[in-house]
Amino acid sequence: MPEIKQAQNSEVRNLVNALMAHMKELGYRPHTILSYKTFFIGLVDFCELHSNGVFTIESGHKFLWESCGMVLGDADASAKASRVVQLVADFQKHGRVFLRTGVHQKDFTDAYRPLLEGAWESFRSTGVAESTIQKYRQFLFRFEHFLTERGVERFDQLELHHVNAYVDSLASLSRNTVRAATDNLKRLFAYACAHGYHSTNYSGALPAPSYRMHRRLPETFTETEVEQILENIDRNNPLGKRNYAITILVARLGLRLSDVLRLTFDSIDWDNKHITIVQQKTGVSLELPLPEDAGWAVIDYLKHGRPESTCQCIFIRHCEPYGMLRGDFTKLISDTIQKAGVKPSPNNYIGMHNLRHSIATSMFSKGTKLTDLSQILGHTHRRSTERYIGLNVEALRECALEVLV
Fold first, then answer.
1. What would the pLDDT profile of 224-251 be if each residue is shown by its tens digit?
2. Structurally, what CATH architecture does the domain formed by 101-212 represent?
3. Relative to the CA of 72, which of 39, 169, 176, 325 has its CA 20 to 30 Å away?
4. How far apart are CA 354 and CA 249, in angstroms?
5. pLDDT tens across 9-55, in order?
6. CA 182, CA 152: separation in Å to the nearest integer?
7. This prediction's pTM
8. Class for domain 223-397, per CATH?
9. Helix 160-169 vs helix 79-94: angle between axes, to the nearest 10 degrees?
């Protein structure tokens, strides 16, 4: 069993060595543990240098941000670093790690199926996006797995201490993840109580984090910073040409990354220079003009970067099978902004979506009406667009009321 060795036996070093031994006992394959070892070593070194050899959630957050350019909960190519912090946090607090196999099962267990399928179908009937519905289903799998591991074989056996234990297990995750999990719990508890699966609705017992009342404004970049980011994407290779074309479409048009990755050859009208899509999140059709530099970036990729493939998506994987591309490109953006010398606010999530926020803020500051901005961004609700007002200090000043004395 590999260990992390050094002359000193710090608390975090002993903790991580015990964790790796525990992972072996749980049946983790040796090569899986070895794949985590680099991040374990990095975390240990960081804690010994910055927190007197003691691991805390705060030191884990700082490790991810300062060493990996990411925040806890990111799901990109460096997700293992985030997973390592979560593993250490769980093992420190609970003396064990929680396997993730429960989220991959194909169906709910017999005891939970009527409740969870019913809750899922009830949520589906609200008309939300399919991607959001699937995330809710994943949450239900995770929660069921958490309960059955603790001997709660039926939902009517659920007690408040089980709920508290589940919420406590989320402590190492990002704020947005915790907020989504508590929202999903409230939805599930309300459904269960209303349909007789449990006599108590535990929604009122869930924590209501104060940050929900003070929603964090999204990180944005200035126009100069956006150009610096684009200029620092290496376009001298096929993969770089693809990544540049994707990034410039998000930066210039404010498209969601999910919609860019689903662009097909039929999405672009080259004669009239516009893009037409059906947004994945809202299902609403959207037509936008294609900027010249973005168009040339796509052409450059198609001519000199895209592998031969029958896939109808413009942007595809560059390893077999050459099919549809997925991912959030967080690592690309975090690496590129560091290379460009752009310094975002600490502890803020950084990803492709920040470029969407940036173009929206820039357009609003130049006088674009909120209704027009809402249409360009593909928002179905005005309140989704109104959040950008909070990013424009000058616009807020114009809205200020004179104080009467």
1. 989 999 999 999 999 999 999 999 999 8
2. Orthogonal Bundle (1.10)
3. 325
4. 13
5. 789 999 999 999 988 888 888 888 888 888 888 889 888 888 888 99
6. 19
7. 0.51
8. mainly alpha
9. 140
